[in-house]
From TrEMBL:
SUPFAM superfamilies in the record: Composite domain of metallo-dependent hydrolases, Metallo-dependent hydrolases
EC number(s) reported in the record: 3.5.4.3
Catalysed reactions, as listed in the record: guanine + H2O + H(+) = xanthine + NH4(+)
Record note on cofactor: Binds 1 zinc ion per subunit.
Family statement: Belongs to the metallo-dependent hydrolases superfamily. ATZ/TRZ family.
Co-factor(s): Zn(2+)
Organism phylogeny: Bacteria, Pseudomonadati, Pseudomonadota, Betaproteobacteria, Burkholderiales
Function: Catalyzes the hydrolytic deamination of guanine, producing xanthine and ammonia.
Recorded GO MF terms: guanine deaminase activity
Domain Amidohydrolase-related: 68-433
Annotated metabolic or biological route of this protein: Purine metabolism; guanine degradation; xanthine from guanine: step 1/1
Keywords per UniProt: Hydrolase, Metal-binding, Zinc
Gene, per the UniProt record: guaD
Protein name, UniProt field: Guanine deaminase
Amino acid sequence: MLPNLQAYRGSLLHFLADPAFSSDAHVYHADGLLIVADGKVQAAGNYASLHATLPAGTPVHDYRGKLLMPGFIDTHVHYPQTDMIASPADGLLPWLETYTFPTERQFEDPAHAGQVAEFFLDELLRCGTTTAMVYCTVHPQSVDAFFSASEQRGLRMVAGKVLMDRNCPEFLRDTAEGGARDTEALIQRWHKRGRALYAITPRFAPTSTDVQLHLAGELARAYPDTFIQTHVSENKAECAWVHELFPQARSYIDVYDSVGLLRPRSMYGHCIWLDETDRARMADSGAAAAICPTSNLFLGSGLFDFAAADRAGMALSLASDVGGGSSFSMLQTMNEAYKVARLKGSYLPALRMFYLATLGAARSMQLEGVIGNFATGAEADFIVLDPAATPLLARRNRAWQESGASLEELLFALALLGDDRAVAATYAAGQPVYQRAAH
């Protein structure tokens, strides 16, 4: 028997391609088997075929009636904003000044940072999110606290210290040189340590000087396998501010491009007010968009244009953007993404929404084959979804079974009616990290 060999029986779903562009994008087994050894996927397929290959005595966990799929990937979220989620404001910039900056000030205290990191990770796992791209605060200790907490749980996480040397309160301001030194030290301490990966993290162009942005670009060139994360074109007032601060730039995205921050493994939150040239440049560069529908609706920022992004060939993913976003749940994020697409004249099938929250996100992060699907050798981060988790879902589930409804209909109802209650279990590297309490 292989060391730590485990098997999981249930309906099985994962993706091989984007359903918007491929007719053979997903793999589904109504009665499937996932085989895991030493934290990696050994095989995934039909139960009748694979069960016979198991060595005698292999534990088989029975999740029949439930759906096994790769863990969700949230490509843009702020862990320090956990305690200020659902704070009222009439726009992005007042919201930052009134709530975000005072809340982030508390993260100079490592004990506070550690406590929030633990709660934040609990919430992600309860919602079925096994990987996230996470913004910390300007304080290096906020990064140490986050990665220490995720390391203890064996999670694949990406995070970074915010760089911010102007247009912010003095108590949150670093310096261009000091921020770069702190970032490099954190890269050397955490990047590729266990399952941790580091993201160079300018908060957004208005809060960094030209010098700081250039130094971030130098770090990106010095450490090409790190990630980059920041915000771009979130709302009109912000875009106008960027134009005033960077009059030499053709556009907001050009500010980042001019200093070398547009490349593979760069993740740009929002991307609402881009033009065709911006979208084409993002696609050519390998940069990706993190679409944040709950945040964009909550702050009134605008509606992401899925059709325009697809025409340009941009890499896309879904993100919660807590605390501007109003839910940690990627199912709730899909719910709002569907509505945003409809309001912009597009249609998002459920299969594509689940793709964007799994393999699509992994591809956007250049991590296909590591996370995001059940390819042999991929890390065994997976979740168990319960189509009968609530009375309403249970009633819908009976209707599906009686009518012989399609997988698309099952997934659509999960996305529109589901939330954290639909997650029965979450596994990271083959280990259980969350089990829903019995009711």
